[in-house]
Amino acid sequence: MGVNSGGEVSRNLKCFVIFMVGIILSGIITVMYLTESINLACFYDVGDLYEISSSYYNISGENWLYDYEKDRIVTQEENASFSLQMENRQENWNYFSLEIQNLSNTSRGEIEFLGKNNERLYMIDFELRNGRLVLPLQKETIYALNFIVRNPVSFSIKKMQFREKMQNFEWSQAPGVFVIVLAFYFLIILLILYFLRHYIGQELSQRKIWIKTLQKSYECLLEQCGNLFQGLSSRNRSLLRRITFFSSMLLLYFMLVRGWYWKLLVQRKTVLLLAVCILFVAVLSWEKTEKAVNWNNPLVYAWIATWLMCILSEFVIEKDIKNTGIFMLGVMGPLYMVWGKMKRPERLIGDFLAALRWCYWISCVFCFFFRSFSPGIRYSGIYTNPNLFAGFLVTANIAFLISLDENLSKERLKRHILWGNIFGLVTIWGFLRLTESVTSLAAYALEWVVFLWKQFPTEKKTVYKKNLRNVLAVSAVSMLAVITLGKWGLSSVPNVLGTDFLFHGEQTYSITGMTSLSLKVEAAEQIGVSDRLLHKVTSGEWNTLFGGRTEVWKEYIQNWNLFGHAGHQECFNGKKMHAHNALLQMIHYYGIFICVPYLIMLYYSLKYGIKIIFNKKQIRMNLFFLLSAVNYIVLGFAEDVATSYLYISWLTYYISLGGMFHQQKQKTGT
Amino acid sequence: MKENRKLHMFLLVLAGILISVMLVMMRLGGSVNFRDFMSAGRVYDISPVNLQNHSSAWKYDQEKHGYWLLSDKASKRFRLDGRERTWNHLYLTIKETSKEPLTGMVRYYGKDKRKLYQQPIELYKGKNAVPLDETVPAASLAIVFQGAQGEFVSISEMQVRTTPSWFTLPHFLKLFTAAFAGVITVLMSLLFLKRRFLQRREGKITGVLLDSLQAEIQVAGDFLGERLGGRLSVFQRESIRKLLFSILFLWMVIGNVAGWLRDGAVFRYHVLICVLLLLAISFISWERPLQKQSWKTPLMRSWLGIWMGVIICDLFVVRSLEFETGLGMLLSGSVFIFFWQNMEQKDRMLKDLMAALEITFFIGIIYCMVFRAKKPAIDYNGMFTSPEELAMYAVLMEIVFLTRMDWLIARSVNGSLERGREDGALFFSCFKNILGGSVSLFLVLRSGHTPGIFIFALIAICYLPGVWVKLFHHGAKCRKLCISIIAAAILSYGCTCLVFASTKYLPEILDLNLQYRQELLTTRLKGEEKELFVQQYPGSLQGARMKHKDKLPVIWRNYARRLNLFGHSGSLSVFREVLPAYSGYLDMAFHHGIFILLPYAAYQISIILAGAKYAFHRKGSRNICMYFLGIAYLSFSICANVEISWGHPMWLCYYLSAGYLGGDGGGALQITKIGKEEFN
Fold first, then answer.
1. A647, A595, A605: which is closest to A630 by C-alpha?
2. Are A308 and A325 in contact (CB under 8 A)?
3. I need a surface site. Which of A68, A529, B182, B626 has the fewest CB within 10 A?
4. Of A220, A227, A269, Cβ closest to residue B219
5. Which among A592, A513, A512 is positioned nearest to A559, based on CA atoms?
6. Which residues of A touch B316 (CB under 8 A)?
7. Contact yes or no for B208 and A216 at CB 8 A
8. What pLDDT is recorded for position A520?
């Protein structure tokens, strides 16, 4: 994939898009064929389905043991049983599906279905055997079940489901159908291409004109409004920008912590305020230069396509979080235009990072006085969830890393900058340890890798080495302070002052060691948690490795459709939960086809992020683009960073995109 | 400039009135409440129809507008809002009584009609406030007069509510006068301070906003316009425009009839199609690179003010339909208006719009003749769902045909009719316009909508005498035209009779009569007259309702009582059914907050003032269309549901007329340029 000499979309990219669309279309048709249902609102239309998490039955009880090594349930006595409460999924289910493997010897089994007060509604008797057992249910609302095995046996349960419809297909049919459909798709594409070439001739590319018109419209807007702030000095502009960015971050923070995104009117007002803030920054930074801005590159196309699809999806399906597409195209667009036109775009980055540092320091003070650290509990900091706080920390880390990168080569490195930076980096590390968030730790590690990688190729001067020594010394002192005083202060100060508090609806997450995963810790509490998790990580159990996320992902994937959904998907006993993955979240919100431009956007943001670092015409703080992209993508692998208006990492990524929009045309030699 | 100043003064006074009304309402409500100025709590007004119904012991006297009490213990029950709940106050206004005080009881009844409680009352002439037992929930209340056999009592109003009512007209006026004086003083002072210190800055910001909007339209418009309209010849452009306008009007009427305007899930798709059609018409009309227009005129400012106001309210109130209406109009309307203002000959667009209206009108008439029968004693709805909408449509078409005739007469008087031009074409033109006018008259009369008939007559009275005088003075020049008019009138009479007969019998004969699901059937018959009719034609009045004429003041009062700063969603439930406001002003104020009336009223006045310029232009190039449209819309706004967003051609024509009247060109005064095409 890439761009050709003129910066235009290459053939590879077109092929990739065609291929991806083919894969998606074939997937959709295959699933529809298997389920025998044409349903654009849910491709995998197998009726309502409640899959009981393995953590509910892979447990040990009195006479029901779970062998972790062999991944088997062992019943040692006759009539061994386990009970399951169906927390929020009491419905009139039609079928109960049970998939068993590795059954040691035959036995009879019984399932008692219980009512609201645990009274027995009815019972189904069956013979345990390997494979799928489908038991038709009576029309009663089931609140719990009791699984009894008559004889001592060992077996593993692969699936336990309540279903509305019976599954009347096997997944083994899928590959064949998929390949046939894909072949047909390619045949049709080839035919279309042939006819296009044969009858229409050269492809009529209108893309350049479209992009230029879009740029022109942004320019017009900025030119009209830019005059309002002509009299301001660059210092004042910078200050105003910082304040505005800071306010934007505060808005995002409150939107998430105060739950404003659930309240429609508050959400609308906040989004409007955010839009005003971003537009204000754009107008403030507008410089009327002769510089030609070239937006003719795949990143821009992907960005436009993503948000146009988003607008379409928002029009068809009323979303819980609204106006994202319009916000991106109408508000972020002008800011991106400003990036290209600025003589010194690093000023914009500098102000954004300064605002990010302000946010971080304020949050530090807040944590120190109001949010105590309790041993054994994962630290949530300024958020209600440790993962969210960790995500924020990793994003703030970018600001300090870039500042360090900028200052290492300076002749006169100011002390307060040095101390501020190092102390920031060290405290971030300290906080991050307390949050125990693996995803954020991975992002953090990758950020450092990128930072260190950037340090190596440059020619090192004496001053650099001197600064590096200073940095190391200060780091050591800061580390010591953080480990001793910091941790003690964080545990004691809020309690001593009596200012410690919990956010409304905040949940506590227990620490489970360095390798702990966040989502389903409570499931692991029922046995020796650390041992079990450690074992699962080494044994390669995907579900446990990702902390139960695979179940969420499965639920999300099952509900893929054409135009997306209004809000989060119900997972785990009817509880609404975000996708814990940015791509899945985007697909869930805006439909399956958004993944094509979205993936292209992510890829090119990484690619251009790297390219900018090696660009001959280097701008200062160029590490920002790659770090933001890495941060967004890594966090997005196991957390939700795709939901708009909620996360500072989301804002950072989309702000940084603007800097990559303008790609200089490469001169081609003849 | 002078006119602008007058308009600004008017707006200042109107703002003063609105702020004063707001303050007085909050004072009467007893709290500062921007969500509900009156803080009125629950209120239920007994329908005036219920206050005229007989009961076994209360006999209503139609002439004296009151009841004769027939027994010693005369009781009459009044149903409340349909739910069993508690009320705190009963207000009874007795207009006349033969005995004072009237003693009796108030009885509380539950939903199953069982008596729950009773309390003694004494009633006097005038407004009586009876405190109710707030612990007893009631579904209906009964007034029982004791020892009052043969007595007379006339009850003009009856209301139950949860909060006390402090509203009386003298009290309101007293408070209003004081508030208005204060508010006007403050506003004048602020205006003075603004002029002294802030004038330049404010002007700059507004200018930037307007220019930005225009600049965006310019960029996108030039890009798309060049590719769509730029490639077409004038003839092609006009044909496509007519076609698209016709589709748009038909689509709007279909949406209205199908009930899409009230269905949140479908409405946005309906609006999307309308928006796309309007945008397509705009881009088709591109003739040359777009130029900036002066949008700092009161007309354009108020136009933008209305739609921005509608959208802004959405930040404060959760609504389902209003945002789409506002956004659709702001997006497509502003583009359309900008394009129209940029046209070299604005009349071409107007002419195409009118042609599309004529085409759809005649299609509609044929549809009515075949599918929509007139039922006896029930007002005719035509192709619409209510007589009111039909009346509005008839008035709009009257304006269109009068404008056409006016142009024809003007050209005849000026002698610009081509000599030797086929008489047939002239006759056909006269016939089409006169037939259209007469069928419009027929429809408005059939609708039985009194305000509609009045407005129709008003426009005719305003226009026709002047024409007769003109024809009389220029008789020699217009001989051919006069003969054509007379012949066309005779033929039109016959055709109108045909329409009359068809709408009466044809759908029944062909068995094609259609009735819409959400149709409003109204009848003028009431009381004994109605009973007799039903006896004679059983089932013929099924689903038909009495006209809301008597109920209008109560409906208006209900809507006025709920006025607030940022509006409401949906409509109010009055007399146990959801009823619209029956007033454009109240409807706008109720849905978008009281201050939307500022741009709304300003727009209405601006349209009439700007329209008057063209209507009374002396050089023979006049255009009466916008002037009469402005008058008609304003008149309907007083007592009809005129705000049928994206559902009525009149609504669209009215809001788009800013394209003709606003902008730099200041409207098109080139009627004569249309020339030869007018016959066709």
1. A605
2. yes
3. B182
4. A220
5. A592
6. 265
7. no
8. 44
Query: Which helix (H) or strand (E) segment is B329 a member of?
Result: none
Do A268 and B211 make contact, defined as CB atoms within 8 angstroms? no
> Which pLDDT score, from 0 to 100, does residue A469 have?
87
Helical (H) or strand (E) element with B650: helix B649-656
Residue B60 buriedness (CB in 10 A; 0-12 / 13-18 / 19+): middle
Q: Are A287 and A347 in contact (CB under 8 A)?
A: no
**Residue A130 CB neighbours (<10 A):** 13
Q: How far apart are CA A243 and CA B659, in angstroms?
A: 42
Q: What value of ipTM does the predicted structure carry?
A: 0.85
How many angstroms separate the most distant Cα atoms in chain A? 87
Per-residue pLDDT at A524: 43
- Separation in Å, CA B486 to CA B440, B480, B481, B483, B657: 18, 10, 9, 5, 32
Which residues of chain A does B272 touch, with a Cβ-Cβ cutoff of 8 Å? 315
Which architecture characterizes domain A49-166 according to CATH?
Sandwich (2.60)
- Which DSSP state fits B302? H
Q: Where are the domains of chain B?
A: 2-41+170-211, 43-164, 212-679
Average pLDDT, chain B: 88
- Across the interface, whether the CB atoms of A220 and B218 are under 8 A apart is answered yes
Distance from CA of B34 to the nearest CA of A (A): 16
Average pLDDT, chain A: 85
At residue A536 the predicted structure's pLDDT band, cuts being 50, 70 and 90, is low
Rounded Cα distance between B668 and B611, Å, is 11
CATH number for the region B43-164 comes to 2.60.120.260
| HEC assignment per residue over B118-132 | EEEEEECCEEEEEEC
The C-alpha angle B339, B345, B351, rounded to 5 degrees, equals 90
Dist. CA A210–CA B313, nearest whole Å: 34
| Residue A248 phi, psi (nearest 5) | -60, -45
Model's pTM, two decimal places? Answer: 0.87
**Residue with more model confidence, A504 or B350:** B350
Select from B455, B423, B446, B448 the least CA-distant residue to B496.
B446
CA angle B251, B255, B257 (to 5 degrees): 115
